[in-house]
Every structure is written in structure tokens, then in C-alpha cells.
Amino acid sequence: MKIDIVSIFPSYFDPLELSLLGKAAQNKIVDVEVHDLRSVTTDVHKSVDDTPYGGGAGMVMTPEPWGAMLDSLMGDDSWLIVPSPAGVRFSQSLAHEFSAAAHLVFACGRYEGIDQRVMDHYGERHRVLEVSLGDYVLNGGEVAALAMIEATVRLIPGFMGNPESLVEESHESGLLEYPSYTKPRSWRGLEVPEVLLSGNHEAIRRWREDQSRERTSRVRPDLLGD
Length: 226
Ligand code: 6GU
Fold this sequence. Notes:
By secondary structure, the protein is an alpha/beta fold. The protein has helices at 15-18, 20-26, 63-73, 92-99, 116-123, 142-153, 164-167, 201-219; strands at residues 2-7, 31-36, 49-50, 60-61, 78-89, 103-107, 127-132, 186-187, 190-191. The chain has 8 helices and 9 strands.
């Protein structure tokens, strides 16, 4: 998979080199390139924003630099992902969809967002998605893009050392994951649940399923639809 990221703060993406994603890049599972939006500006001030038509607070990113940059990046099978608190909610199922794409382009806006015509223009020819992490506001799309990229790349076949660990994790089944324990058996007076030491695989499976349901109904009843 190829991932291009466009931002006015390219160094936000330095951690990609260090993390698990660095390994994926070394193994040629994913090729990530970061582009500075200011590199395609034509004025001495390298400006990328202006005041909003209709008035209001803040600044809006102008379409010209985005057009110049995205014309050079978008191809026939490219998806344009625009992180935005006004977008559709990111989810594990969207991460699965992203992980099957050949080319993802993340357009990270700052200020009050990007001129709507950028999304409309590329939407005529490409899959364009405005995507939000959740119901809170970040200063720009960079942190959101990092989160979406990490969630996506770990689902690409061959990325995870042990693909089994993808199967039972939170949000794959629609339930939260059951609690986990390791050695020692006793720690500060707290014991590992007896059933996990029993060797009875069917009993362990049932206990974990019960724990998943109990935890989900307690902290995320919305996932159960009640
Ligand atoms: Cl994707 N962008 C911004 N700026 N804020 C957010 C977000 C995205 N998701 C949640 N809050």
C-alpha cells in the first residue's frame, strides 16, 4: 500500500519512522511519504489560508495549494481521506476498508478546515471521505491521520507478527475484549481468576465471553444497541 500525507506540519509524522509502522515500511508492506503543503505555494509568504466568505471566526485553507498538491498525488485508484470533526465516524470496519485500498492520500487541514470545493472537486473522480475520530475537537487533522494510519496498517496482511491476535481484540466482534492476566498468580493480594488456571478450554471460552458481555454492557451499552 502507498500512503501519501499532506500537511503544513510534516514533522508531526516523524513518529511513523519509530513505531511498528517503521517496520512495515522496512518490510515494504507500506510506503509512506509526507508532503509539505507549503512546498507548492507560489507567493513569498507561502500562504495556505484566508478569511472565510460569509464571515466568522478563524481561517480557511485555500483551494489552490491543495489542487496543485493533490493533482500530483491522486491517481485512478487513490482514495482521498480528509480528517475532520465534521466527517463520518472512524471505526474498525472503516480501518478494514482502508487496509484493502492500494493508495490512500491523507489531506490534513488546520484552522477551520479546507475550502469545501477541494473535496467536491476530487469527489467527482475519486473516493473522497471526510472522517472524524470522535466527538471532540483537535487543532488539525494530523493526530487523527496518525491514528487512522496506525489502525489501518496493522490490518494489512503480513503486518502483524501473530495475526491470531487480531481476531479476539476489542471492536472486531462488536464487543469489548475480555480482561487479560499473566504471571504472577498472586499480586498484592489480587488473584488471577481460578477458571483461567483450570485448563478447561470450554470453561475459559465461556468465562471470557461472559466478561466481554459484562464489560460491554457496563462501559459501552451503545455497542449492544440497548
Ligand atoms: Cl479527524 N480532526 C479534527 N480537527 N478534530 C477531530 C477529528 C478530526 N476527530 C475528532 N476530532
